[in-house]
Amino acid sequence: MTIAKNIEVSSTSKTSFEDAIQKGIAQVAMTVNNIEGAWVKEQKVGITDGKIDKYHVIMIVTFVVSPDSDLR
User: Fold this and answer.
1) Using DSSP, how many helices (H) and how many strands (E) does the chain show?
2) How much is the average pLDDT of 47-61?
3) Rounded to 5 degrees, what are φ and ψ at 54?
4) CA 3 to chain centroid
5) Residues 20, 25, 31, 32, Cα dihedral to 10°
6) pLDDT value of residue 48
7) 1-37 in b/e burial notation, b at 16+ Cβ within 10 A?
8) What's the pLDDT at 1?
9) Distance between alpha carbon 65 and the CA centroid of its chain, in Å?
């Protein structure tokens, strides 16, 4: 049997939504193995002086739990 877990991740970039997604996944991958996918749940921008200055995403990242992991 395969067991998957989901975690919610928030990430921000000054350049684009895609960059915010890449940075968020890269950060999660530093501590989580077996990442299977991600769902971008929300996107929003920060605006200063009428111009976009931040791209923010909230995503759900799914990873498979190893069979030998302690699930407690």
Assistant:
1) 1, 3
2) 98
3) -150, 140
4) 19
5) 150
6) 97
7) eeeeeeeebebebeeebeebbebbbeebeeeeeeeee
8) 79
9) 17
